[in-house]
Every structure is written in C-alpha cells, then in structure tokens.
Specification:
By secondary structure, the protein is of the alpha/beta class. The protein has three domains: 233 residues, Arp2/3 complex 21 kDa subunit ARPC3; 154 residues, Alpha-Beta Plaits (2-Layer Sandwich), CATH 3.30.70; 273 residues, TIM Barrel (Alpha-Beta Barrel). The chain contains 29 helices and 17 strands. An eight-stranded mixed β-barrel has the order 8-9-11-12-13-14-15-16, surrounded by five helices. A five-stranded mixed sheet has the order 2-3-1-6-7, with helices on both faces. Strands 4-5 form a two-stranded antiparallel ribbon. β8 and β9 form a beta hairpin. The longest helix has 28 residues. Bound molecules: ligand C2E and calcium ion (CA) (2 copies). The site of one calcium ion has 4 residues, from loops.
Length: 712
Amino acid sequence: MASAEEPPSRGWVLWWAYLLLIFGLSSTLLGTSAVAIVHGHLDGSAGAFVLLAVFLVLSELRPVMASGSYDPDGVSVSTAFVFAIMLIWGPAPAIVLQFVAISSRELLMRKQWWRVFFNAGQYAICLGAAAFVLNIFGLQPAMRHPHLFTAGSSVAFVAAAVVYHLANLLLVGFILSIRKGSTVWAEITDEFWYYTSTTMAVIALSPVLAVVAMHSWQMIPLLLLPLFLVYKTASISLEREQQALHDALTGLANRKLLLASTSDVLDDLQLNDGRVALILLDLDRFKDINDTLGHPVGDRVLQVVASRIKEAVRPGDLVARLGGDEFAVLLRGLHDDATVNEVAERIRAWLHEPISLDGTLVDLDASLGIALFPDHGDDFDQLHRSADVAMYVAKASGGGVAVYDADKDTNSLARLGLLGELRQAVDSGALGLYYQPKISLATGEVVGVEALVRWQHPTLGLVMPDDFIPLAELSGLMPRVTDSLIDQAHAQSAAWDADGLRLVVAVNVSVRDLLDHGFAERVSAALARHAIDPAGLILEITERRLLADFERGAKVLAELVASGVHISLDDFGTGYSSLTLLKQLPVCELKIDQSFVSRIGESEADATIVGSIVELAHALDLTVVAEGVETIDVLERLEALGCDQAQGWLVGLPMNAETASGWIAQHQPDATRFAVPRQDARLRVGAATATTRATTAAAITTAAAARARTRP
Ligand code: C2E
Ligand code: CA
Ligand code: CA
C-alpha cells in the first residue's frame, strides 16, 4: 500500500511531525543496516544473493498496475524477494535493497522527495517490525550466519508476514487519515481484502524462494512463473476495476469515477479549506460531424478532444467523459477563481485548433460551464447541476465559457429534469399539435391554422413550447421533434381535406432544422407520403434567427420553395432585416410580431411600424398576418391599416385537433358563420382569462361577421 499526496492545509503540524518520525525511524534502521552490511561478510551462496537482489530491484520497477494507470496500488512482487533475503541473511540487506529499489522507482516517477522518502522509509520500518517478530521466535538470520529455512520456522514466518502487512496498513493509513481528516480505520478497511490477499500471496512464496536459494540457487528462475502468475492475476483484477471506471473510447474517467473522486475531494475539503471547480464541456455541433463524416471519424475526434483536454490541465486534475460529446474536468487545490477561468479558456482555445484527420480539417468549438465548490453546490449532484446550467447559458449565448450564475438559473431544476423526459416524449408521441385559426380581415373567413406544439406531460400537464423547444434545439433533438410534428400536421391536413375543408396549415420550424442536413428533402418526402398539395403547407421561420445564418438559411429556403412549399417570416420586425435581404428571400408572408401588434392601440410609433410593414409587404407582393390580436380595437386598427390576416386569442385560441375541427366547421363561410356558438366559451378553456376573453371574442367575431355580411 503506497500513499500520501499533497500536504493538508489543516492538520499539517501533525502531518509533518508524523513524517519526521517516519524519517527518523527509517533513517536509523537504514543507517544500522548499512553499518551491518559494511561490517558483515556475506556467507552462503553469493550467486543466490545476487540473483534475488536483481529480481528484487527489477520487479520493484514493475509494480502491479493496470495498463494505462500511473499510480500503482502499492502491491509489488518484489516483496517475495525482500522477504526471502530477510529470511536467509537477516533484515539489514533486505532493508537497504528494498529502500534503494523503491526510492529509485519513485524518483523515476518524479514524485516529490518527501513522498519518496516516506514510502521507502515506511517499508523499511515494516521490515524492521517483521525482523523483530522473527527475533522473538528466536530466528536471528544474519549475513554471517544465513538461516536455513525449515518447517519449524513456519509459525515465526507467518507472524512476521502478518506484522509486516499490518504495520504497512497502519503507517500508510495514519498519514492518509491526517490528510483526509478521516479515521485510520476507514483508510485501512478501504480495499483491505485486495491488499491483504495479494500481499500475502506474494509473501507466501518467499520461504520457497529461500529454500530453493539455499539448496540450488540456479533453480530460482523456475519460481518466477508462479510469481508472475500472482502478478498477472493482481494486474488483471486491477485492470477490470479500471475498466469499470473508465471510458473505453478515450481512456478517460467515466461518470462513476468522476462522482467518486469528486465526493472524495469534497469530503477532504469539509475538514481542510480549499476550493474545487467542476467544468462541464459539450462540443458544439458534434452531431454534424457524426452525420456528415461518419461515426468512426466522430470517435477519433472524441479521442483527440480527450487528449487535448488532458494536455490543457495539470496532471493531477481529473478529466472524464460523461457520454456522447460531453466531458468534465475536476480541478482541485485551487487558490483563486481566476485560475478556473484561465483553465477553461485554455481548454477551449486548444479545442478550437482544427483537427486534421486523413487530410480533412475538422473545426470544433465547445461550450463550457463552471461550478465552484462551495459557492455553487456542496455535493457532486449540485455542482454538476450548476455546471450544467452554466454550460447551457454558455451554449445559448453562442458558445464559450460561463460560470454558474444563480440569476440565470430560472427554474433550472425543472429544465434539466425535463431534458431526459423530453427524449422519451418524442419517442412516445407525447408531443402533439394545437391549431390556432387565422382569419382573413377582409372576409372574416378562416383561411388557415398555425400548428403549435404542446407536450402532454404526465405530471406537469400541458408544457408550452417556450419551455422545451430551446432544450430540444440545444440537445440535438430538434430534427426528430420537427419531423414528427410535420408528419402530424400533414396527417391532420389530409383529414381536413377529406372533410372538404381546405386549410393552409402553418408549421413552425426552427433555424436549426433548416440548417439540418437534408431538411428540404425530408419535407418533400413527408408531403408525398400524405399526398398533400405543397401549397397547403406554410413553414414559419423566425426572422431574427434566420438572419443569424442568412446565407445557408436562404439556400435551404430556396430548395423548399422549389418544391412548392410556402415560407412565412415569423416575428417580423424583431430582426431588423433590410429591404435588400427581404428581396433575396423567397418568402410569401410576413407575420408581424405580437409586440408591435398589441401596442398599436396605445402607441403611435407602433401603429406606424405596423403600417409601414403592411405597405412594404404589399409592395413586395407578400401577405401580411398580424399575430397576437387580443382586442377589437387592435383588430379594427389592423383592418384600417390594410393588414390581410389576423390571428390571436380574440379570433380563436390554439385548440387540439378535434376542437379545432369543430371550431372551423362552425366558422366556415357557408355555415351559420360567426354566430358564435355557446360552446365557444368551452373551446377557450385553458387560456388564462378564458371567460372574459371568450366574451370579447364572441363580440368581435359577431362584429366581424356583421362586417363581412355587409361587404359586397
Ligand atoms: P410563435 O410562432 O410566434 O407562435 C405564436 C405564439 O403566440 C403561440 O405561443 C401562441 O399560442 C401565442 N398566441 C396566440 N395568440 C395570442 C394572443 O392573442 N396573445 C398572446 N399574447 N399570445 C398569443 P406558443 O404556442 O406558446 O408558442 C410559442 C413559440 O414557440 C412560437 O411562437 C414558436 O416560435 C415556438 N413554437 C411553437 N410551436 C412550435 C413548433 O412546432 N416548432 C417550433 N420549432 N417552434 C414552435
Ligand atoms: Ca409561428
Ligand atoms: Ca410569431
């Protein structure tokens, strides 16, 4: 069992005192052993001694460890040789040889000097204790009078082995307990059976080695095979443990190990002050790489990312892959928060360097979220949640690094919980469409409907799109959501067609969808599947977000229009598109954003804006729709301004398919149009002020109907 990392910030007096005690004791032992060697003559076979010593040093240089791990769990087959030497020639050469072997290995591993001395020193003390036990049993082997191991020495040997092992557990357990502020008992019992069984299996071979060495040392190499098997078994069991805690693709720690390490580090910090940071990292647009270049390339990109992150942090910091393209870094021993930001920025900068794979350059970017202990959480779950929120904030603002900020954490719990459930909802068909009517202001007739997604959640009830569409976009779920909604809208459209209702159905698509590979083809395929006239479909795209990636977006829009689909620019007025841009876009409709519409009654400026949008649209031969029409006053003003169509609570609320069908049937021009049926109040259930709005709606639709009737 090997030990001890950094000096603790609390309890360091005890820690140093203990180190000094170990240094003192082991130096004394080493000194006396060295003197004994200098004054002693080696009796017995020199060949046996040299062979055992060589094997001792060689095997110490190769301690038992899983491949890829750098910190051995302190079991080494060299103990068999050490013990064999001690059983024959006494503790002096064993102590010196073991000290030299261990310290050379640790120095080669570039450990701190005090760590080297502690580890090598405590083993010297353990050997000293074992020799003392042999002594009690009357066994006093020495260089001058080597001991011939016999059956009668077995009890002494077992006692010495047990004491050696216990001393090792206690000496190391004690320093770990000071550092972690835990109990010695807790440190000893940790992995007790693994250490005990492997150590004992190794030591058990030492009497055999001793007997063979004394009788015919040339046969010592024969014993290497069983020793090697012990070594191999221990390595394999460590290897298995490694695999359970590591990600196979990148070799990084997995979620389980990250959780365990974070908990360990935080436990330590309950007793010693200090700060810890958890950084979560998610690659931007990794899905595109997988989709366009294939999974094998995606995997290699992840491996490169893993090694770059590792290079960007200190060797002691834990880097983990949590799945997919999500990584985490645990930084400990932080002295100030600025360091965390530096590390995060450095990781991002390193990832930003294009990756060259077989001549193809892959550009990467990442969003990183930082959570600090203790400010943003005092256990792994809380830190992880905070870092996740921060990462979400970073991503929403276009990538980069964000530190957790409680102010931006509005209902984050709900949001994070929702993500997992959203995936299932898409598969289980829990996302459905509501339909909100659009009427012609000139005739009052229903010209179409806008399909609006709703999530029927088992416990939360109806979840609105603003609460989950951004999540779907960030998590790469959006293409599946949109495909399924377009399919539903088409099925409904076909059903209305069959009932003789010719309605244009507007479906909202996010710009993310538009930029998704093969979107236009998928839309055409869906139209063909349901045998729908493309002219019956309008895709609504938010103006502001389209401008963010205008060129690519415009290209896909052109493909869609070529297949006969109509495009509407949603939330128009919020994106400041110029006339030039507007002319380049193949759209047929502008939807004036509700923020302007709702204010035209009160604000002259807004009325002017709406008026100019109407004029502009008409100059470009586009239809203008006003959305968010809530009052008669607004409706009348829109009509006066020459707006073509209106949509809003005043006209009709978003309704499920069945209710919408009934509503439309009753509002068709040839039916008893707009003589608002009494159940309208029921149709509007679900809206906040259902009754008042229903009353106004009844009034306005009656007014619109009256106007429509008096028109030529
Ligand atoms: P949007 O496209 O601007 O949709 C209009 C929103 O205004 C809808 O909110 C609608 O219910 C609401 N609304 C309708 N009449 C009135 C009114 O008189 N007053 C007020 N204040 N609001 C009214 P909803 O359904 O919550 O949708 C919000 C946004 O979510 C939509 O804004 C759209 O951007 C997005 N969305 C909805 N469904 C989908 C979808 O299927 N796919 C995508 N990508 N986005 C969707
Ligand atoms: Ca819309
Ligand atoms: Ca809108």
